[in-house]
Amino acid sequence: MASPAFAWTARFVAEQFGVEEDLVEEIASMAMQPEDGRIFIIDSNDDNSPSVTAFTRDGIDYLRETLGDPSSCYYRLSPRP
């Protein structure tokens, strides 16, 4: 299997799903592992520099399933059509 060539930021994914970025960040930190498609982007050698959460296609699929699953505690927080 090829390595992912693209990643999308939590801000971008939140905008696409119509949810708050904080919700996407919470799901990433509480429920996702790197093998689920969550990665961190480091943009500085400074140890105090914050990382940026990003997602591969698998990560976006994971978030879509989590936000759309009625048994998920995050379901009630995502907008319904």
Walkthrough of the structure:
It is a single chain. This protein has 81 residues and is α+β, with helices and mostly antiparallel strands. The chain has one domain. Helices cover 38% and strands 12% of the residues. The protein has helices spanning 10-17, 21-31, 57-68, and strands at residues 8-9, 38-41, 52-55. A three-stranded antiparallel β-sheet has the order 1-3-2. The mean pLDDT is 87.
What's this model, at a glance?
This protein is of the alpha+beta class and 81 residues long. The protein has helices at residues 10-17, 21-31, 57-68; strands at 8-9, 38-41, 52-55. Helix 1 packs across helix 2 (21-31).
Structural class: alpha+beta
The gyration radius over C-alpha positions equals 13 Å
Largest sheet: 3 strands, antiparallel
Number of domains: 1
Succession of helices and strands: EHHEEH
Strand order of the largest sheet: 1-3-2
| Residue-averaged pLDDT | 87
Number of strands: 3
Q: Bin the helical content.
A: 25-40%
Number of helices: 3
Overall body shape: globular
Q: What fraction strand?
A: 5-15%
For the termini, the CA-CA separation is 35 Å
Please mark out the parts with pLDDT under 50 across 5 or more consecutive residues, or reply none. Answer: none
What secondary-structure arrangement, pairings included, does this model have?
Elements: E1 8-9, H1 10-17, H2 21-31, E2 38-41, E3 52-55, H3 57-68
Antiparallel strand pairs: 1-3, 2-3
Helix pairs in contact: 1-2
